[in-house]
Amino acid sequence: MIKDITILIAGAAGQGIQTIGTLLARVCHRAGLFIFSSDDFESRIRGGHSFHLLRIGTRPLVAPSLNIDILAAVNERDYEYHRERLGPKGIALINSDTKKTMESHAFYLPFDASAKAAGGMIASNTVAAGALLAIIGAKFKDFETVLKDNFRDKSEEVLKLNLKTGKQGYDIGRDIEFPKYFDFTGGRHGRVFMTGAKAAALGALAADCRFFSFYPMSPGTGIISNAAQYGNELPIVIEQAEDELAAINMAVGASFAGVRSLTATSGGGFCLMTEGLGLAAMTETPVVIVLAQRPGPATGLATRTAQADLLFSIYASQDEFPRFVFAPGSVLETFNTVKKAFYLSEKYQVPAIVLMDQFLADSAGTETGAFQTGHEHETFLDQETQMSQDQAYFRYKLTGSGISPRKVPCLSDALVRATGNEHSEEGLSSEDPRVRTAMVEKRFRKQVLMKDEMRMPLVFCEDSSFYLTGWGSTKGSIMEACLRLREEGIDVGWVIFEDIWPLDSHRLKTLLENKKLIMVEGNATCQLGSLIRQETGIDYVTRILKYDGRPFYPEYIIERAKQIMGK
After folding, report:
1. Which of 54, 94, 95, 434 is most exposed by smallest CB count within 10 Å?
2. How many CB atoms lie within 10 A of CB 330?
3. Is 0.70 topped by the overall pTM?
4. Are strands 351-357 and 287-293 parallel, antiparallel or unpaired?
């Protein structure tokens, strides 16, 4: 029996296609089904061509799919754009107020006319959602519950309009035959459905982050906007800065004052933040930066996805200094990784960068794993408040670990100094070559311990002929592609990185030795493959790269992998 179906909802920006997908997802989630959704949209407020992919199944889903079972198109142009992707048993719903004839698999339905007759064209997307839910076998009472919750902050008139149009759409959809694969009688299940952007925001809040600074830039802005929803409930400050340089400096300043701080941006904004990143490194001030990647250079593709900032994040800012770089691959990993980034950034007094991208930030999925707890309120601040009059405070004390005692200004007798210049143990500017050498070595002593905090990549199926190897948001598509290839008898495993830098070369070399790596990356130069070769001497066999601004689909990886392996 089929385990999942994919619904593609196509239209222009401003026509509410994402709302349709959200309503469907919430109804299916209530019924205990698994969801994976993603958006493809142009950088414009209205017009153009966009689509929302919604995958629904009875088992966990970790990636989108190119195989469409139901296509819902706002007009015939959108239908023609995607019709070739319809499966052999797929159907299409085309919004039309005048065309009445039906093709064997295409149904022309009056979404706009139904909404207009009910009292408001604006609710045509609710008509479409109702029709789709009826087609897949959902219960109208569940749709009614979701609509009431969705419009609870709106007027009674708006709610009535959407309940009416939703019922009209549902009645239209009931007349269309489509296999009823799913059981919608499921009850409470305790699973979570959310976007990567929301998971990043909640991870920061769970880590006791109190200060968020940003300058708007998609897709990083979604992380801050999700945190802002809790502004009236939690003791947090959210500041929209005048530019990205101000945003990073605000975050560093707040952290210097003892508050856990985060800034979120995208590639172009991170370029501007590199000076502040260096300030955090020199002053040994912890700060977390979420870098949601998108194609560049310059403005690039503002609403598309990429994985081209990996090496940039590792080497960004002038000179050399230790930092953490992480790349979560799912909603759950995003939550847990952001939490971990705060803990480790404060423990080692270094910046921590969490690499996301547009695909991970805007996609949503059902999570079945555990959202980790612990470390929320653990602090590494020096709590001693009293010092004798002649006792100096050595903020940058030379220690065996490289980690010096860190105090918050004005909370003790200590005089806390900080400077962007090279400095002595007391925090006084110094150009003494011996001091300079000692401080560089002190900072890098941390990196030895930092490597021990990093997990090795996840390896599936030891002794496979080939390994699909990637990082970050490619994880789900790599995993599904690998499993589907194995079902066809093709001997392939996976190697997936989440903890990127600092990299333990010896442990990694031992893990990857004699493995044939097929790199799967969303960039043009195979950046992780280059990093592995640089650090271990192990070279990859070949690569599957994608840099068109669109995410990896399992089908794309499968096709390319078969070509590589001669299958």
Report:
1. 434
2. 24
3. yes
4. parallel
